Amino acid sequence: MPIEINGLINHNMASELSPVPVSHYDIDAIVKLAKVQEAAGYDRVLIANAATMPDNFTTAAYVGAVTERLGVMLAHRPGFIAPTMAARMLATLDRLLGGRLGVHVITGASDIEMQCDGDFHTKEERYDRSLEYIDILRRIWASETPVDHDGKWYRFNGGYAEIKPLNGTIPVFFGGMSPMAIATGAACADVFATLSDTVAGMTEVVQKVTAAAQPLGRKPDFLVSLRLVVGESEDKAWAQAADLKSRIAALESKAEKNKVATSAAGFARTAELAGKGERLEKCFWNGINEIRGAHSNSGTLVGDPDQLVDAIMDYWDAGVHKFILRGYDPIGDAEIIGRDIIPALRRKVTEREAAMEVR
Description:
This protein has helices at about 25-40, 55-65, 85-95, 110-115, 125-140, 180-190, 200-215, 235-250, 265-275, 285-290, 305-315, 330-340, 340-359; strands spanning about 5-10, 45, 70-75, 100-105, 145-150, 155-160, 170-175, 190-195, 220-230, 280, 285, 300-305, 320-325. It is an alpha/beta fold. Helix 3 (about 85-95) crosses helix 5 (about 125-140) and helix 5 (about 125-140) runs parallel beside helix 6 (about 180-190).
């Protein structure tokens, strides 16, 4: 199984080291982030979505216009747009991107945040709705004739999309750590995505989701989000990590806590992970997770390039073939990862696959 490397595009150059007002929409930053990550060899970039954020459909179309190869993983929340209309919007965006679109279906962790857009359903109801929503998307993309539907959440007659995704469908990413999220993702995801976790944690996720998916005749792939601190040597990498922790701690003490994130099972898992110690496994570092607690996605691998490639390949061996890899400097770290990590990972995967074929 090949490896897929994903990055991230925010609507400005914000990071833990350089706070920027959420309201600041920086077109130049979007262009630079897109072009740097494309040049670095990233396959896709996640473009996030949340209540009050700028529209990411529009941002994604612009990213497609200023790049040639870079794919987009578009975060999308069911419930605010009819699935028939969403199917047409996503297919249109995929065509504009030349078939480079993936959709990351976000059920929504917080009742409070979902209510900002008028959604007062419970989290359990939202997972149930997401399953029906994704099924409708795929039916509309695939059908050459109008579709009628009378379900629990949606009812329509003659739903149809004159425009289809370039490759016939669009890969669906889905995530979460609650039992209902795992059951829903097992039933609908092409790729089951998680926040940062250890190899042991991801092995557990792979086993749970795979066990739930097998009776349904499904075999989703897996994605984990990891931060990287790349040093010329192991000692220099850990010195960089210590400096990062000090600088981020100073900024975090002044920052408003993200109370929305604390309600998500995935973030609760991150907080639990941070409680196990600052260093885990080969080079997994909880330093920033310890500072940010239950609103963090900052499990970090620290080391020299060879150590980081070796550690990431442990995830690949555990059945995780897609990654979000980023550092703490959106531009500088993307360039370093593109130079020192991505090519080496691709070589390792090619070698590993060749060895498996020989067996």
